[in-house]
Automatic annotation (TrEMBL):
Catalytic activity line of the entry: L-alanine = D-alanine
Organism annotation: Sphingobacterium paludis
Single annotated GO MF: ATP binding
InterPro entries with a match to the protein in the record: Ala_racemase (IPR000821), Ala_racemase/Decarboxylase_C (IPR009006), Ala_racemase_C (IPR011079), Ala_racemase_N (IPR001608), Mur-like_cat_sf (IPR036565), Mur_ligase_C (IPR004101), Mur_ligase_C_dom_sf (IPR036615), Mur_ligase_cen (IPR013221)
N6-(pyridoxal phosphate)lysine: residues carrying this PTM: 483
GO biological process, one term: D-alanine biosynthetic process
SUPFAM superfamilies: Alanine racemase C-terminal domain-like (SSF50621), MurD-like peptide ligases, catalytic domain (SSF53623), MurD-like peptide ligases, peptide-binding domain (SSF53244), MurE/MurF N-terminal domain (SSF63418), PLP-binding barrel (SSF51419)
Enzyme class, UniProt record, top EC level: isomerase
Needed co-factor(s): pyridoxal 5'-phosphate
Active-site residues per Swiss-Prot or TrEMBL entry: 483 (proton acceptor), 707 (proton acceptor)
Full protein name: Alanine racemase
Annotated function: Catalyzes the interconversion of L-alanine and D-alanine. May also act on other amino acids.
Gene3D superfamilies: Alanine racemase, Lyase, Ornithine Decarboxylase, Chain A, domain 1, Mur ligase, C-terminal domain, Mur-like, catalytic domain, MurE/MurF, N-terminal domain
Ranges where the Alanine racemase C-terminal domain occurs: 686-807
Amino acid sequence: MYTIATIYSAVRHERIQIADPQLEIVDLAYDTRKIRNGGHSLFFALKNVRDGHLFLQDAYQKGVRAFVVSQQQIDTSSFPEANFIWVHDVLHAMQELARFHRLQFRKPVIGITGSNGKTVVKEWLTQLLQKDKRVYQSPKSYNSQLGVALALWNLSNDYDIALIEAGISLPGEMSLLENMIIPDVGIFTNIGAAHASGFSSKQQKLEEKLLLFKRSKQVIFPSRYNIGAFLPKMVAHFSFGSEDHDEVRILRLEDHGRLDTRMQIAYRNEIATFTIPFRDKASIENILICLSALLFFGYSLDAIAHKLAQLRPLDMRLQLKTGKNGCSIIDDTYSNDLASLQIALDFLFQQQQHRRKTLILSDMEGLDDKLRQKLVQLLQKQQLDRVILVGAGLSFLLDQLSGAVELFASTEALLLALQSMRFQDESILIKGGRVFHLEDVSKHLVAKSHETVLEINLNALEHNLQIYRAKLPQEVKLMVMVKAFSYGSGSYEVANLLQYNKVDYLTVAFADEGVELRQHGIELPIMVLSPDEQIFESLLAHRLEPELYSFRVLQAFIHFLKRRKVANYPVHIKIDTGMHRLGFMPSEIEELISILRDSVEIVPVSVLSHLVASGNSQHDAFTQQQIAVFDQCADTLEQRLGVKPLRHIANTSGIVRWPEAYMDMVRLGIGLYGVDMSNALDLEMVSVLKTTITQVKRLPAGETVGYDRKGVLHRDSRIATVKIGYADGYNRRFGQGVGTMSINGQLVHTVGSICMDMCMLDVTDVIANEGDEVVVFPDVMKAASAIDTIPYELLVNISSRVKRVYFYG
């Protein structure tokens, strides 16, 4: 907690305007949607995709009275009680403040970097150390220029050690991170292909990452990456590998059973053998990093053997699942600390599908009096309807929280009580440390379904949204297509995220899709693409705005509104400029104007058309013609009607290739979900369809597999049956070896015909066992091409019986 006077002394500033120099700051804010403690928050007006200066008034209304800004012209009379600090660069100011705070921390800080494995190593080390030490870790993957600053802000001398993750994607970034973290000890995981496009060579990327350790006393690293020569001379090495000079020498690695690996290592004058519950190379290397770190910290080999045996795979993503009785379950049961609890609570209150909010929370490791006080303050800021506590160590919360609060001594006690507890139409956050196994509570509350799942990465969706937003001028509005179950990705779950990110409009194909969104708390304007007379009542009841494309629908809707005595209802006028699917023809504009001029029942809030081939350069002349025709029609409507509706014609490809088509608003569709038909953007795939192997059997050459004996085996083979078929949306055309799936990173082909609920794969040449996870579309573009279709078809045809699981963080 620092005063404003201390803060403006700690950061380079150009000028200040101080109303209360003794105002105490507890939280750093940069997003008005996440402000919970406005009176003690310092708001940083970051200029990212959206300029934070546009939200100063919003922050002030939420109680914020301290701002760091770079925009010189601000009418401070609108903020009579506010403190302003003007700086050249707002993000750099936040980083300076984070550095100032980090220098108050007197315990060891461990900086972790590398291409992959950073978060896993950080999480595992936290698990391994927290029985003996109070460990602070940067939350989730807060490893960016902004994330590291926020992570360091939560440091306090209540902890014995801090683990801070650092990630970069461009040259010049690591020096800024190092200047904040100033790690006493460094951990380097590996060097690989991640973010390779930002660097001229692998060596440049390596040298940039190693800048994190320029002031460290010691660096722990795998010797096989040969980084020793690039480390500063004053930095001591602590390496592991098979070389004689390695501090930790690997003598033997061998498979031990179906899931385990046995490793033998030498350290100083001792030899030890460990059995670890992993076989993949990445996990083994991450465990060797953790093992080396524990040795460096002074743990004995015997103690380490016991600790490593407890490690389990990490699912580090917060999951949103469909629960029983209309509930939504947020499963975040792999770790529990104050920083990650705040992130999970933010996500809970992002969900608008239910009014009621419930928290199930386990005890935390290392809670002393100060941390207890911080936990109380954090929970008191939330508007929770019910809190269920697990672990006697949380009993101090019983008289500190309002609403219904229950305490259970153990997870087992809670599981027994769940049989009689009622959960109905509420969002439930389950947040717990791994030792409490609250995933068992999640399993009890989640609705049972088909085991094939579609994993939807909400971080990737948010990333893609920002990629497209960054291409648009600030004044251009954004309409997002959530039709067809959001291209297979879900309805209100995706819409909630879009609403949270303040898009301007949503679009659905049919009214019932819009009704579902309204029933789950979506308040954004929603355009309906294909209205007809049967759903007019539903449009009115749920504030849905129809796209009007023909005189028949137009006249019918006007007459409907007349009977209901409704005036000025918002509608969208569709012009056919060449798609020839729906819309008024340019030759019909005069008649359209005549009807609109005489009608008080409707008001055109937008006029739109659809580009036929905006992504195909062969048809650029036609696209230009469409834009010209549309502008002419829109101009005529404006001039003759005396209104100025929003104009929009640019679709996803139009956003990429046709800036002149941005107009007042653009419509983002398939690109949001990670499919880039232009191959011009750094998008992330949002959806991954996964299933599992039900059975593996050995069959001799000459046997046949599947219906009609179409899968003929030409060699002795291992055949795996997986839990997905055409009823799940896996097209029958993928049969006969056309379809390709991935098991443990290895590509395999289908065998025989695709069945309704299952299909078979040839796993003769790969490692595959019953229960293994299978990625159905390793590359959705290639999969679509294999059956002569487009990715849209594959995504929207994934059956609703396939369970959607949403990940965040």
